[in-house]
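Issue 218. Parser rejects a valid record. Input:
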Amino acid sequence: MRWTRKFIPFLTLALMLPALANAAPTPPETLAKQTVQKVLSDMNGKRDELRKNPQALYDLINRDLVPLIDLPYMSRLVLGRYSREASPEQLKRFQTAFKNMLIRTYGSALLGFNDNVNIEYKPVRADDDAKNVTFNAVIHSQNGQDTPVSLQLHLVNDEWKVYDGSVGNLSFVTNYRGQINAQIRRNGLENVIEQMEKRYNPGS
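Output the parser choked on:
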């Protein structure tokens, strides 16, 4: 598969998230390597089956990866100023549709993972009492291109949660905020939520 900048952050996020859940007691770079091996082992020989039954992959991601993301906070960051204008019901619906969008994107990234792509994990450099940390990695592709990737995490109830990521200098949240806010300006928040629900929610 040809790797694009679109999928690199999702791939790295999907592989690193389980490790980051326990980032405090164990060096996260060590856990990340273990996680990569486990995820790839679990999917080994099952990619064709999962392509035919993507819902099985979506269920796996929803169960194992999504709980490690701070979805309420990330959703508000993506909505930007529109989060203050949204009703509680709209915020809840947007968060659900946004979550389902992430699940499908993670699924595409994982199914296309190439074993020849090498991920180099960098040690986390932060004070012991830090509430926010940045987790860095470098993607070494077959064509010799090196792409830096980072994840931003903060503590939520004594657990590390991801709230943003970036590939190169492009923030995931900033990228989606620009796209979604432009749609909201054109069509309104309710219309955008409805379109996301139709496209990404189960049964759509």
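Fixed in the parser; the record now loads. The CA atoms of residues 102 and 164 lie 12 Å apart.
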